[in-house]
Structures are given as structure tokens and as C-alpha cells.
Design a protein that fits this description.
The structure holds two protein chains of two kinds. The radius of gyration of chain A is 13 Å and the shape is globular. The mean pLDDT of chain A is 88. Chain A is α/β, with parallel strands linked by helices. Chain A has one domain: Response regulator (Rossmann fold, 3-Layer(aba) Sandwich), CATH 3.40.50.2300. Helices cover 43% and strands 20% of the residues of chain A. In chain A, strands 2-1-3-4-5 form a five-stranded parallel β-sheet, sandwiched between helices. By secondary structure, chain B is of the alpha+beta class. Chain B folds into four domains: 88 residues, no CATH class; 145 residues, 2-Layer Sandwich (Beta-Lactamase), CATH 3.30.450; 68 residues; 184 residues, Histidine kinase-like ATPase, C-terminal domain (Heat Shock Protein 90), CATH 3.30.565. Chain B is built from 16 helices and 15 strands. A five-stranded antiparallel β-sheet of chain B has the order 2-1-7-6-5. Chain B has a five-stranded mixed β-sheet with strand order 9-11-12-14-13. The two termini of chain B are 53 Å apart. The relative contact order of chain B is 0.06. Classes of the chains: A alpha/beta, B alpha+beta. At the A-B interface, helix 1 of A face helix 9 and helix 10 of B.
């Protein structure tokens, strides 16, 4: 299944705009949410092909969004998830996240063009 | 032969003398007996009547004599040899013979065990008078002449030791804790067996040092500074300087003193926290810088002049290097806090290198170096943490660029070697003298020359070594002053790591998941 729609949850405007810009340019349909609550609501309302989740977010952390979506029951069975963070987590939460996400990436290491190639590989 | 009149200078010098003397004595006595028998045969007329029989008698007599002498010699020489070997070690003379281990079956059978134990015990009494109080009851009896005082003083001693801030631990030859004072961090497992509750650095544990001692020492001492009892974020984390004293074959084979340095090292912990937070903080702006350079150089590629594109490439290279340095700092702070974990995955050298290939090509070309990478197809797979190993390669290539000349060639090669895969980074640059090579992997080490001429922090190779060793591999360097250096990373093949984990039989099997491609908690693996 090719990825067409993407939801980004990212509170840093510089970084969020950067992803939106390059993803839109590459032809994806992109929605962008700034805080964790809005992110969770958006993910529940619409089945995106891909979720790009930051971890440190206002209102609700990326880990909590993922827990709510894929904890007891997988509410987004057809979606891929990429967790993006600059602040690496302690071992347990990282393991938990790796188990539920399709990729776990360090933002500072992933330029937009690298992100595009990761998304292509996932799709 | 009077070997005893000549005093040998070293204990070990006695052995060749003893051997030589014994052999000469055997030959001399055999000849003497031979001559006497021959004389007897001649004078009795037996030789004249039956020359062949006489000769046969002489030959048989010599053979029997030599065999008998050798058996007697062996019987006497063996204990002498072991006695001397033990004495050589006790006297601290240089030797490459392993000290005889009193617990070996052979010594138990022959009854030689108590002899060796006595030698080691006597030696440890002389060398470590402090330990007398903790010695065997028999010795305490001898030292304290009045038995009623011994009881009392023992109770006093034990109370005093429990009151001390230092911890004392005594471990026996089976490496079991037989005494631990109150201040010692010990954990008790479900069978009620006590063990030290300390987190040693993976490559430098008490166990590994004990193994070394067993192989090659009678007495040894070692200090480990700053050993934590818990992982960061765990409650009641304490830090100790750990001093161990090893005495082969004694009942208290390992005596360990722990000095609680929590107050001192906690400050350092806060600094490490600060470093980690600061490094993470720096990643935000770097994400933006690297990202926008990426976006802009793409969007502007049609408008930019060739020289402007080169400026963009330089921006890109610099931003990438910056994030590499931050990774080095973060990994070092993790490693120093015993928190560096590898997420091993079955992969290939090529796949790991591919993740950094573009950055490296750009880095080399923008600094006018020719980077030649020749990694053959079909190398065995390795168990690697791709991101960390990529950082090792980029650290080595960075160094090769730094310490080579403008226009120089850097070769990256890989080859299969037994159970390992070897990756080499070769520069033909300035090289270094052997005095520098020996310190190269130490934290913060910078040679005198590089301090003055090249910028750097001295953690790149330190953390590279830590990462490679956490993979169960080794890193080494050959260098010739003025002609360049070769850094070689040797990594065990995936098959070997997987086999080792399976054979380990200590619950590690679960670490390899069903599809065979993940080894999850690598800290369990010790190469």
C-alpha cells in the first residue's frame, strides 16, 4: 500500500514547517498538529497512511498518543508510524515505542530527503 | 655436585641447577655401577666363559638402572618443581609459569594441596598483616594468646567494621561472599546466596580480573574508582571506590574494601546530566540547520552557481560533523554512566556504510581528500547497531582526513578473517610515533603535536573503542611516523555472536527473537 496521507504531530514550528514543505513538495497530502491532544483527535478521526510523531509535545506526549492508538487495541491497523525525537528515551519506553512504531529516528540525523527515502521504503 | 653450597640469586634459578645436577648424578652413578659389575664379571671369569651373556647382562643392567633412576627422579622432581613454582610467585619473581592451583585434583590426590596452601597462606600473612584479624581461627589463636580476649575482641571488631563507612567483603575460592559488612551493597538471590550489588564497567569487571589473577598471579591488588550500585534514575544510587586484594589459594581469596564516595561523585553525575541535556538541546537547532540546508540546496539547485553550490556543500558537511560531535558527547556520557546500550541487528558492513556513504563522500571531497571504499560482496553478516557503528566509521574517516595531507588518499577496506570481519581505515598521512599510539584510545587524550596543530576533544577514539567493544569486537592501530596510520575494527560475525549467546545458557536465548534478526538486550552479551 502506497503512502499518500500523512499526519505530523510536531510542536517546533521550524521543524514542522520543514517537514510539511518537503513532504507536500514530494506529493503527499499532509496535516500538521502542534499539540498532543489535537494530534490524537486527528489520528482518531481520519485514517492516515502514516503518522510522524514527535515525543516531547505539549498536552500529550508522542508515546501517550501511540499508547492510546495502539495500546490495548490497534485503532490504526492500516497506518505506519514513525517516531521522531531528539531527546532519546530511557530504555523501557524506547523498547515499547520500537515495538509499536515502524521506525524510531533521531531528528538531528534525519534530513527531509532522508525522511522521504525512509517513507518510500515503508510504503 | 654441591648445588646447595652455591646460593642461587633467584628461586627460579635453582630449578635448572637441580635438573642438571640430578641428570649428572644419575649418569655418574650408572657408569659407576656398570664399571663395578663389569669388573666383577671379569674377575669372576664369567666374562671369559660366556662373553655374550656377560654383555647382555651389562646392557640389561644399564637399561633397568636408567629406567629406575628416571622413575625415582620423576617422583622427587615433580613436587620440587611445583614447590619452586609456588615460591617463585610468592617471591614475586618474573615468570611465565602459571602458579600451581591448590584446588587441582592432582594435588588433592597426592596430598600436596595443604603444602601449597600453607605456602600461600604464610606469604599472605607476611604481606598483608592487616588481614590477620580476618584470618583463619587457627592463626587468630596463635596471635592472641589469651582465648577469652579473642572472643571479646572479635565481637568488638565485627561491631566496629559494621559501624565503619567502608564496606568489607570476603569471598572464598568459589567466589561466594562469605562475609559482608553492613555498609556493603549486597543482593541476595532466591537461593539465599549473597553477591555484590555493583555495576562494573562491562569490560572491566571483578570477575574478569579474578580470571586473570587465577591464570597468572599469587597476590594482586586492583582499584576501580566510581563504581555505582544502581543505574541512573534508580533510587538510592551510591558510588564506591572498590579496592580488591587477591591471595591465591587462601580461604579469604578475595578481600574487597568499598569506600563510599557518593557525595563526591554525585556532583560529577549532575555534570554528566548537564552534558546530556545540553547535547540534546543542541540537536534542535541542528535539525533545523541540516534540514533547511537540505531543502534549500534542493530548491535552489537550478539557480545556484557552481561555487555557491560548493558553499552549500560545506554548510552541509559542517552541520553533519556538528551532529556527529554531539553524538560522540552523548555516547560518552552514556558510556561513562554504564548506560550505553547497543541494539544489535543482523546486517552487513556495506549496509552500515551505506547509511553514512553520502556524508563521507561529501566530507572527503569538500576537504580535498580522495576516499576509496572497497568493501567486497559476500562478507559474513555481523551483529551491529547500525547508527553506533556508523559513528565509529565516520570518526575513523574524520581522523584520517584530519591527519592526512591535502590531496591524500584514504582507503576503507573490509575482509573476512576467521570468525570476524575486519574493517580497515588507512590514511597515508602524518602518522604518529609509538609513544602516542599506546595512549590513543584514552579519554581526552591528545598528543602533544595534535594539541598544537589540530582541533579536537579526544573522545572520538575513546567512544569508538567503547562502541566496538560493546559489539564484542576490538579496535587496533598500526602507525608509522610520517607515513600514515591504519585503524582496524574487528567484529565477530553474526553467527558467532548468535552461537555464543545460545551456548551461554544463562537466559540469553530469549534475546534472539524468532526471525533470528534481533538481539535485544545486548548488555547481557560479553565477548
Amino acid at each position: 500500500m502506497a503512502i499518500k496521507t500523512i499526519l505530523i504531530v510536531e510542536d517546533d514550528r521550524f521543524i514542522g514547517e520543514m517537514y510539511v514543505r518537503s513532504l507536500k513538495k514530494a506529493g503527499y497530502t499532509v496535516d500538521w498538529m502542534i499539540d498532543g491532544n489535537d494530534g490524537l483527535i486527528a489520528a482518531r478521526n481520519k485514517q492516515y497512511d502514516l503518522l510522524l510523531l514527535d515525543v516531547m509535545l505539549p498536552e500529550r506526549r508522542g508515546t501517550e498518543i501511540l499508547e492510546a492508538l495502539r495500546g490495548t487495541e490497534d485503532l490504526i491497523p492500516h497506518s505506519k508510524v514513525i517516531v521522531l525525537t531528539n531527546f532519546e528515551q530511557d530504555e523501557e519506553s524506547r523498547m515499547a515505542m520500537e515495538a509499536r512504531a515502524d521506525a524510531y529516528l533521531i531528528k538531528a540525523e534525519i534530513t527531509p530527503s532522508k525522511l522521504l527515502s525512509v517513507i518510500e521504503q515503508l510504503g | 655436585m654441591k648445588p646447595l653450597n652455591v646460593k642461587p640469586q633467584l628461586v627460579k634459578d635453582f630449578w635448572p641447577r637441580f635438573k642438571r645436577g640430578a641428570v649428572i648424578l644419575i649418569i655418574f652413578l650408572q657408569l659407576l655401577i656398570l664399571i663395578a659389575v663389569a669388573a666383577l664379571l671379569t674377575t669372576s671369569g664369567f666374562f671369559r666363559d660366556n662373553p655374550i651373556g656377560s654383555l647382555a647382562t651389562l646392557v640389561a643392567q644399564s637399561i633397568l638402572g636408567v629406567v629406575a633412576s628416571l622413575i625415582i627422579y620423576r617422583f622427587i622432581a615433580r613436587p620440587v618443581k611445583y614447590l619452586l613454582a609456588a615460591l617463585v610467585h610468592v617471591a614475586g619473581e618474573p615468570t611465565n609459569i602459571a602458579p600451581p592451583n591448590p584446588n587441582e585434583k592432582m594435588f588433592e590426590k597426592s596430598g600436596f594441596k595443604p603444602v601449597l596452601q600453607a605456602i600461600y597462606q604464610l606469604a599472605s600473612d607476611v604481606k598483608d598483616p592487616v588481614e590477620e584479624g580476618q584470618g583463619t581461627p587457627a592463626q587468630n589463636g596463635e596471635i592472641a594468646k589469651k582465648p577469652e580476649e579473642t572472643e571479646e575482641s572479635r565481637a568488638l571488631l565485627s561491631t566496629a567494621i559494621d559501624q565503619a563507612i567502608c564496606g568489607f567483603v570476603i569471598m572464598d575460592q568459589e567466589r561466594k561472599v562469605i562475609y559482608a559488612s553492613k555498609a556493603t551493597p549486597v543482593k541476595v538471590d532466591t537461593d539465599g546466596i549473597q553477591s555484590l550489588d555493583l555495576i562494573f564497567n562491562e569490560n572491566d569487571t571483578l570477575e574478569s580480573w579474578w580470571d586473570e589473577c587465577e591464570a597468572s598471579a599469587v597476590h594482586a591488588e586492583k582499584t576501580w574508582p566510581r563504581i555505582p550500585s544502581k543505574l541512573p534514575n534508580e533510587e538510592d544510587r551510591r558510588f564506591f571506590d572498590v579496592i580488591a586484594s587477591y591471595n591465591k589459594g587462601t580461604k579469604s581469596e578475595m578481600v574487597i574494601t568499598l569506600i563510599d564516595r557518593t557525595l563526591l561523585y554525585e556532583v560529577g553525575e549532575e555534570e554528566l546530566d548537564f552534558i546530556a541535556f545540553a547535547a540534546h538541546e543542541l540537536r534542535g537547532p541542528i535539525t533545523v540547520i541540516r534540514g533547511y540546508i537540505d531543502v534549500l540546496s534542493d530548491e535552489l539547485s537550478d539557480v545556484l552557481q557552481e561555487d555557491q553550490k560548493e558553499l552549500f556543500r560545506r554548510l552541509n558537511v559542517s552541520a553533519t560533523r556538528l551532529s556527529g560531535y554531539i553524538n560522540n558527547i552523548l555516547n560518552t556520557s552514556r558510556y561513562d554512566r554504564r548506560h550505553l546500550r547497543m541494539h544489535l541487528n543482523e546486517t552487513t558492513v556495506t549496509a552500515v556504510y551505506d547509511t553514512i556513504r553520502d556524508d563521507m563522500d561529501l566530507r572527503a571531497s569538500s576537504q580535498n581528500r580522495a576516499l576509496s571504499v572497497a568493501v567486497p560482496d559476500g562478507l559474513p553478516t555481523i551483529a551491529a547497531d547500525t547508527a553506533s557503528l556508523g559513528e565509529v566509521f565516520s570518526n575513523l574517516i574524520d581522523n584520517a582526513i584530519k591527519y592526512s595531507n591535502e590531496g591524500g588518499v584514504i582507503n576503507v577496506t573490509a575482509a573476512s578473517k576467521g570468525d570476524t570481519v575486519e574493517i580497515s581505515v588507512v590514511d597515508h598521512g602524518i602518522g604518529m610515533p609509538s609513544s602516542v599510539v599506546s595512549n590513543l584510545f584514552q579519554k581526552f587524550y591528545r598528543s602533544h603535536r595534535s594539541r598544537e596543530t589540530v582541533a579536537g576533544t579526544g573522545i572520538g577514539l575513546y567512544i569508538s573503542k567503547a562502541i566496538v567493544e560493546s559489539h564484542g569486537g576490538t579496535i587496533s592501530v598500526r602507525s608509522e611516523d610520517g607515513h600514515g596510520s591504519t585503524f582496524t575494527v574487528s567484529l565477530p560475525t553474526y553467527k558467532m555472536v548468535a552461537d555464543k549467546l545460545k551456548a551461554g545458557n544463562n537466559g540469553n536465548e530469549a534475546l534472539i527473537s524468532n526471525d533470528g534478526s534481533w538481539i535485544k538486550n545486548h548488555t547481557m552479551y560479553r565477548g
